[in-house]
Amino acid sequence: MTKSGGNEFHGDLFEFVRNKIFNARNAFAPTRDGLKRNQFGGVIGGPIVKNKLFFFGGYQGTIQRSEANIIVSYVPTPQMLSGDFTGITSPACNGGRQIALRSPFSNNGIDPALFSKAAVTLVTKYLPKPIDECGQSVYGRRQNSDEKMIVGKIDYQQSAQQSLFGRYERGTLFTPNNYNGANVLSLSIPDYNRGFHSFVLGHTYSLSAQTVSSFRGTVLRTLNDKSLEQDFYNYSDLGVKNLYYPDSFKHYVRLQVTGAFTQDVSAPGVTNSMVEQFSEDLSSVRGTHQLGFGGNFIHSNMNYTSGTWTSGRFSFNGNTTGLSLADLMIGRPNEWRQDQIAAQYLRQNYIGLYVQDTWKATSRFTVNGGLRWEPFFWPYDHRAVSAQYNKKWFDQGLRSSVYTNAPAGILFPGDPGASDVGNSEHAPAWLHFAPRAGLAWDPKGNGMTVVRAAYGIFYDYPHFQVIGGIRNTPPRGGLIQLTNPAGGFDDPWQGYPGGNPLPIAISKNVVFPTAGVYTVIPKDAKTSYVNQWNLSIQKQIGMNWLVASNYIGSSVIHQMYEHEANPAVFVPGLGDASRNCFLNGVRVPYTVNAGAACSTTGNTNLRRVLSLQNPDQGQFFSNIVEVDTGGTRSYNGLILSVQRRRARGVTVQGNYTWSHCIDTGYTDIIQTNGVQIPERRGINRGNCELDRRHNFNMSTVYETPRFANSFLRVLGTGWRVSGIVRMLSGPMFTVSTGIDQALTGTVFSTTNTQSDQRPNQVLPSPYVPNKSIANGWINPAAFAQPALGTYGSLGRATIVGPGNVRIDMGLVRIFRLREKQSVEFRAEAFNVANHVNACSSTSGQQGSPDCMSTNLTDATFGRILAAGDPRIMQMALKFVL
Predict the structure, then answer these.
(1) Sign of CA dihedral 499, 502, 503, 509
(2) Which of 299, 336, 300 has its CA nearest to residue 316?
(3) 806 in a structural domain
(4) Which residues does 10 contact at the CB level (< 8 Å), separation at least 6?
(5) What is the mean pLDDT of residues 808-836?
(6) In terms of C-beta density within 10 A (0-12 exposed, 13-18 middle, 19 or more buried), how is residue 425 classed?
(7) Could you say which of 31, 528, 701, 803 would form a disulfide bridge with 651 (CB–CB 3.0 to 4.6 Å)?
């Protein structure tokens, strides 16, 4: 919301300052964060033509320099380079657990002659040196940014019945990469340039004393560019062979070593969008009824070009040796992914119409009812790139005519049997009607007690990024995933049919890659919607107190999540004398050495469902991430609140919430699997990751009185002291095996290749005795890996993490200079008690930092790795005229 000008000039100048000299040290940092943050600007408004035309404008700039966010990683030690892994596998380095390297390695030693040349070069030439025998590397990441925003608004009062306004906003945000100049592991983001232009035109027209029309037209354009011009090192520098490398991707590598370290910068890329929106709202009062009618139309565009996987990424999770760093040293990645530069040009329309009526039935009873019509139009890409997969098509051997070499089961827009709605994913869903109803009742008619209740249906329309994974689908995306590549770290494309297939030249006869990764949305996918209801009772006690009890409930239907549609099947036993293996008495279409295990990570793609059914066509598929809209979520919460209005200079508000959220898992971008057993979402039902069972808040404001003594009045009058206390119970965490113990070839997500599988809990309590941030939180001994080829029995989101306690305080005084001029001084302290709060989320949850490792194979499993902000102080001055 932007202020408007008036018949008098008014405005202000302000600056907010944060600086390391006022702040405490983060509990996990050796020094203070070096924070320097200045937020400054001003606004001014006034008349152009008195009583007719007014202006308002403003500017705000924010400059931040900081090196916070202390990270602990683990890198190979000199002892490991000599072949001795006894230190890194000892209980001292693994939370009290002893790790034994798997056969054929004995006594936790590996002959250095078996080491990967690329790995040795990486460790000796580029990675930081460890500070202890466990391989610790401690470093900070820069958190610098420069933000500028301007706003301008013109208001025109055409007549007593009509007014118009126009508003323009422009914002830019530059966030440089976070490399600290000393440790290459500190680099985790590229250089980001973000910006937007926004223009809004509004017209308000009073058709009569009872009827008002409001029109708004909006254009929003966003510009987002990410790049990394700084040259670090690439796979060629390490000696990795036969890679596809566009020039703009030659500056860095992408490595994920589970529980040890990650190098995962994704750049360059461009994401630009344009949104045009038009709305009309009509309000009319007719007796005891206030009627509302309106409509809204939005057309959205997003053009995206990037190479998320173009530089390629190796993942090492310990599947070979039992230790991810050992897998790195011998060059045995569990996965190699690479694609070519991909693009999406998405378009989407939104239409919404509504009608509502607020009826004051009696002086004590008011009813509100309404209905919205919101048909859903799936996004579409004007280049018709979206592949549509259907298992029935694969069974029938149905092939595409758009791309003649596409494997069976995949059709594209233009193919008979594919989507018949042009380039869209699906036909529109027209019958989306959302009723809402509510009531307010004053039982005694004296305004001291009010009962309110409401119910409504709300449709949820996914944003463009939800279907972002579709851009990686072959042939245009060309994302290829190799499980346990034969050539390992040194030559990942070794043994691939035809060699490295990238880049892929697009034509009608394009050759589809082996082991392609597909992201698909079924034709019967539904749109999520929410049933929401609430009941509240408010009671005023005396003149100053107000108490309330509120119940809030909701139920999400057709919640979107994903599952693996092409998992690998565990084939038990060993190869017979003829090198054959059998599944349910039927010989499988691949062979192994006599006496060798029939199921290994090395033959994952050969054991996938489609490969076992039809090896000739199944070889073209690796992971198939398929959207499922059959998920659910429920939320129930009780909110108790009390408020004391200002009396004797004191205002107090407090509330307590008890709530519980249960779901089958969710996603905000289609690139994840997240279901332990594919296509069995029921066993995934559990606590929401964001579930916080208890939430207590209390705020107070005290304003000093006007003292009679002139000296005290100058020094002590007019100060406003405020405080906020917040106590929040911990979030829910899910323990994962960290490795593909079931040998299904599924992972948590395309950006996080830890396993989505869960272990068995073998102790009554999963927590360490006297759990704390200092002592650790989850007990590694409480869990055990399930037998090979099986799933664990542990549920999802069963671990309650550390809670949060925070006290914020503020001190404000306004000094009057003249009748219309004043200076406001403000001092604020956040987490004033400097309480150490653990980060509230865990690695593996979407978009979260590594605050607590829940991978059972990690050396840091169950330990708190980072803390939230320490005490931070902020000073501000504001001049108002």
Answers:
(1) positive
(2) 336
(3) yes
(4) 44, 45, 46, 820, 881
(5) 93
(6) buried
(7) 701
Number of H helices, E strands in the chain: 8, 42
pTM value surpassing 0.85: yes
Q: Is 290 left (phi over 0), alpha (psi -120 to 50) or beta?
A: beta
DSSP state letters, 412-437: -TTSTTS-SSTTBSS--B---EEEEE
In this prediction, residues 798-825 reach a mean pLDDT of 92
Tokens of 382: 């004007």
Cα–Cα distance measured from residue 756 to residue 692, given in angstroms and rounded to the nearest whole number? 23
CA atoms within 13 A on the CB side of 869: 14
Segments forming the whole domain that contains residue 876: 694-728+802-881
pLDDT tens, position by position, 182-215: 999 999 999 999 999 999 999 999 999 999 999 9
What band does 674 get if pLDDT is binned at 50, 70 and 90? Answer: low
User: SS3 of 677, please?
Assistant: coil
- Cβ neighbours for 713, distance < 8 A, ≥ 6 positions apart: 706, 707
| CA separation for the pair 430, 409 (Å, rounded) | 28
CA 530 to CA 60: how far, in whole Å? 38
Structure tokens at 603: 């033959």
Structure tokens at 288: 């005891």
Amino acid at 484: N
| Contact (CB, 8 A) for 545 and 643 | yes
Structure tokens at 725: 């206390």
d(C-alpha 480, C-alpha 495), whole Å: 14
In whole angstroms, give the CA distance from residue 458 to residue 435.
8
261 contacts 73 by C-beta, under 8 angstroms: yes
Q: Which residue has the tokens 């139920």?
A: 555
Of the candidates 111, 138, 127, 140, the residue with the CA atom closest to the CA atom of residue 75: 127
On whether residue 711 sits in a domain, the answer given is yes
C-alpha separations of 47 from 6, 151, 199 in Å: 6, 17, 21
- Kindly state the greatest CA–CA separation across the chain: 104
Is there a contact between 590 and 579 (Cβ–Cβ < 8 Å)? Answer: no
Residue-wise pLDDT for 625-652, tens only, equals 888 888 899 999 999 999 998 888 899 9
**List of residues 6+ apart from 33 with CB closer than 8 A:** 20, 23, 25, 26, 66, 67, 68, 140
Print the SS3 string covering 229-291. Answer: CCCCCCHHHHCCCCCCCCHHHCCCCCEEECCCEEECCCCCEEEEEEEEEEEEEEEEEECCEEE
Contact 296, 279 (CB under 8 A): yes
What the block records as the tokens of 343 is 């693009």
- How many Å apart are CA 591 and CA 613, to the nearest integer? 15
Contact between 834 and 808 under an 8 Å Cβ cutoff? The reply is: no
In tens, the pLDDT along 256-269 reads: 998 899 998 877 88
User: Is 310 contained in some domain?
Assistant: no
Class of residue 717 by CB neighbours under 10 A (exposed 0-12, middle 13-18, buried 19+):
middle
Total domains, the chain: 1
Tokens of 729: 């119970």
Among 355, 342, 267, residue whose Cα is nearest residue 303:
342
The secondary structure of 148-169 as a DSSP string is: EEEEEEEEE--SSSEEEEEEEE
Identify whether 332 is part of a domain.
Answer: no
